Amino acid sequence: MSVPTRLRLTTVNLDTPDPAALARFYVRLLGWEIKVEEADDVILHNVDGGVGLSFQRERAYVRPTWPAQPGRQQMSMHLEIGVEDLDAALAHALACGATLAEFQPQDDVRVCLDPDGHPFCLWLMH
């Protein structure tokens, strides 16, 4: 399939009731920097290059449920974060304000929830 012009994924945007608070969680978690901060939008710069994260105020935000349950708000995406030391990464994520999800489907992955309930996976890079 041919693409008529170059397309490049630059940012993943997460809805949140408080963009500044959620951005600061990910700054602590990832060691990234705030690039733009406005009342309803915050953009993080990925210091390693590649795709960044942004946070957009959603006044009608509903916290997702993990794992999915019929009739409840389901996640529509999640972040995958590769780590070299799963235990150390989990301890760091928890210290930053994440919570460990009750359901853990794999031995080499830890599903965590950010302060707004977005799931993210810490996975052991082999």
Automatic annotation (TrEMBL):
Species for this entry: Micromonospora maris
Highest taxon listed in the record's lineage: Bacteria
Residue ranges constituting the VOC domain according to the UniProt record: 8-126
Name of a matching Pfam family: Glyoxalase_6
Coiled coil: none
Matching CDD domains: VOC
Listed name of the protein: Glyoxalase
